[in-house]
Design brief:
The complex is a heterodimer. Helices cover about 75% and strands about 0% of the residues of chain A. By secondary structure, chain A is mainly α. The chains are: A mainly alpha, B mainly alpha.
Chain lengths: ~500, ~170
Amino acid sequence: MEVDFAFFAELLVHTLSFWWVIIPTIFLGLLVGAIPGFSAANTIIILLPLTLAMEVEIGLVFMIALYCASRMGAGIPAILVNIPGTAGAAATPLDGYPMTKQGRGQQALAMSFVASTLGGLLTTLIALAAMPILAEVGYYMHSVEMIVVMLFGISLIATIAAKDTLKGLIAGFLGLMIGSIGSDVVYATPRGTMGFLELYDGVPLIPALVGLFAVSEAFIIIEKSSIVTDEGRANMQRPGWGATLEGTFFALSRWWHITWNSLIGLIIGVIPGAGASIASFVAYQQSRTFSKTPELYGTGHPEGLIAPEAANNGVTSGTLIPLLILGIPGGATAAIMLVVLQYHGVNFGPSLFFDQPELAYGVFMAMAVTYALMILTILPLSRYMSRVTLARTVYMAPIIIAFTLVGSFVPREYLFDLYLGLAFGVIGYIARKTGYHVAAILIGVILGPLLETYFLRALKKSDGDLMVLFSSDLGNTLWAFLAASIVFPIVLDRYRRRKSRSSAA
Amino acid sequence: MNETKQKRSIGGELVLPVAGVLFTLYYFSTIIDSPWTAQVSAFFIGTILLCLCVALFIKNGMALARGDAAMTFHTLFSRLDISSGRLALLMITIGYAILIAWGGFTITTFVFLFLAMTVLNKGNSKGFIALLSAGLSLGGYLLFILAFETRFPRGPFETFMELVLSNGS
């Protein structure tokens, strides 16, 4: 079969014919993405008997639509109630939630949906065009290069610490220390587990996410009758489509910002073991570094919302590239897709593109169609979704606690995780009340163990020689970028101050 | 009197660093005899954390000595915690986390939501709260346990429904 324009046109029409599968799955995906503890991977596992019984094309379209929608769904509670549905949306509330508090929740949702859709669509098209080249990225990213990528994400702690450096760094390093709990990766020596067997695998992310963001937030919001400020509430009393259109046009006007950050997501997504959380932290940090208004980040700045949302949806297509070309899944959901498709007799690898091109390219076509249908179905709903924030906190706080705490139980089904979620809630509450940033703690918890793993791998390979960190050309280039991303904002800030001083004079 | 009010309360902001120091020292005690692979990263991160905490202690100690700060916990604990129902909500939440193992998801969630909302709403609108709590806990049961087959904590209600549904099929 020849892969030409006619082939892709036929594939598009064929994929569109599965609208009856895609649209209901979008709503299911948005739901499971929005509830902490649930994810596309969990849901595909739960529905495995159904997925295996489906025809291979329908099963594939179902899994892809669920995957894309759950990624977008995770941003909705992050924006509206400061609760990221997954770790991949952990950077979304940094600017999304302040927008909601200002009564701009509807605009924030619209921006998030447009950024996610454009990011997802764009990276899907790039993936289609440059799949063989992108598949090789994984080969060049070894432990040394991964350490630098992790440090890009961790440098966000310094950004968050900008307002109170000492407290910000304490929060970040406390998170890194908590993230170090568990057995070491080489000899499985238990460390800092306080005797809990449940911590031998490390601190699970969902209870940390639930506790630091959701539970602590619930205990804070009861001080006021509504999470939205009085001014914001007044704005929201006049509902209309204007706010949705405003958010949509704003996001469209930042097309370059979306492109750049979704590409960051695509490249990080291609690397097996990396994921949406790293991509969104790196994107947020990069977006702030090169912004003309970095001081507005964290206060409800739309660009701070667009960047992580574009990046984490860019990851979605990235994780599927090594799966299709090399048979190596780039993430948990991709791994489950591999199992399901292998059950149906699909063999991954370069031959897939010659033997079954409609299936190989169909994956990305299904993704593109899902994003296109998703924006049409979800954008009009932003007007109604944002109304959730007008609910009284006396009702909202207990609901948040009950359903997110139980969500922390879901991934491992340990009651211990529920208690852990509560413990993180107390830590998060103390942090918020005393001026420490919970996002800095969470970045440490997420990236700390990953950094340690890659660091140890690099040291083991080099027999403990630290110079291994500067032993590869790609690694050194990334080090230079990292140094530039740290130094550049300082230089730029000084330049702007000097310029404003001279213009004032 | 006014001077006391203007002093910065620093007791609360020391809670996390003190906990961080204690945890780091405990962590070090668990790896002191371990292979270097288990130590290197933790010693690196832990040492930085200890240095940062010491720097904060010195900074706050100097503020105390200058009379700019007071060792109070106003930022963390206040009367608002009792009047807003926060303390009661915390107690109810701890009870929820403990009792869910025996009561199961549906009943415990209903009781938690009803009690928490009633306390926060100062005892008003009990009928509405009862309906809302029942709707949410039953909705949660239908979605999580029946539809997604999640192995949420099971109790009398879930066991009873399982019997009813298995006899019906």
